[in-house]
Amino acid sequence: MVVFFVILFFAIGLSVGAFTSKALDTDSKQNILIFMNNFFHTIGNENVESKAVFIRAFKNNIQFIIIIWLLCLTYIGVPIVFLVDLFRGFILGFTISFCIQSMGLKGLLFLIIAVVPQNIIYVPCIIVASALAVDYGLSIFKRNVNKVYYHKNNTNLINLSLILAIIFLIMTVASIYEAFVVPTIIKKLSGFLIIQ
Predict the structure, then answer these.
(1) Range of the structural domain that residue 158 is part of
(2) What's the rounded Cα separation, in Å, for the pair 93 and 16?
(3) Distances from the Cα of 28 to the Cαs of 40, 49, 154, in angstroms?
(4) Domains identified in the chain, total number
(5) Could you tell me which of 56, 125, 135, 164 has the fewest CB atoms within 10 Å of its CB?
(6) Domain-embedded: residue 195
(7) InterPro entries attached here (predicted)?
């Protein structure tokens, strides 16, 4: 049931992101296209600092895991976990919708190369981490309502922390692809991807 609600909020975020992209006015779309063209032009003519990209992705992932871990320590954080999922879904939905709608086949190619592969790893990791956090937060709520203390509470938190650490390591694999593989492919295709 918890996984269902996590997926539901992520899916709502995807949908809202897609609708927001479609609702953008022409000037906003044009500004984003100009930004993306500049990005493709820059990456095609300059060396990409893959290490810096990896560090940024690494920081983003560790921030996500730490936030999820902190939120699960209290049942008050449970709704915020859902909001985090909503936001992550929104960003992905907006990106996918905009690229397909505004860039056509070039956008689809960009998604296949630069968005989909790492998100095949990121999205399940986000869902599993969020579901575990919500489940743990709700178990704290139940203990408080029932006024019962389970001796294994600390053990559960340790197990949760270890699982989140493993999830972070899995996400790091996606970060490696994002930092060291994507820029190389995009650099070779940058001339084609520029929207005329």
Answers:
(1) 2-190
(2) 7
(3) 19, 29, 50
(4) 1
(5) 56
(6) no
(7) SpoIIM (IPR014196), SpoIIM-like (IPR002798)
